[in-house]
What does this fold into?
Amino acid sequence: MHFVDRHPGLTVGELLTILKVTKQGVSRVLRTLVDDGMIEIQPGPYDRREKRLSTTPMGHDLARFVARLQTARIESALESLPPGSRQVVADFLAGLVDDEERPAVLKRIAGGC
It folds into this structure.
């Protein structure tokens, strides 16, 4: 939900790359989100076989609600740390990403994702 909400029109292939899962691994969850009215699928503008994803208004509201909860929890945890710790935490989390993927992930984060 997070990535689809932040990047309307994201293709299923792009989502699979971000999540590092197979199509089979995401198909059931994606189908449930579509059936529940959280995500909608549209054909690509040039290739009708391409599936473009976006959140519905209800899906958008849910994604933002969850993001606010997570942000509040993270902010609360960071408040108790000494000055400069935010950067240490950010560096640590970036270090969890594979070396070859790190630049793209950091670029995506800087872009508001």
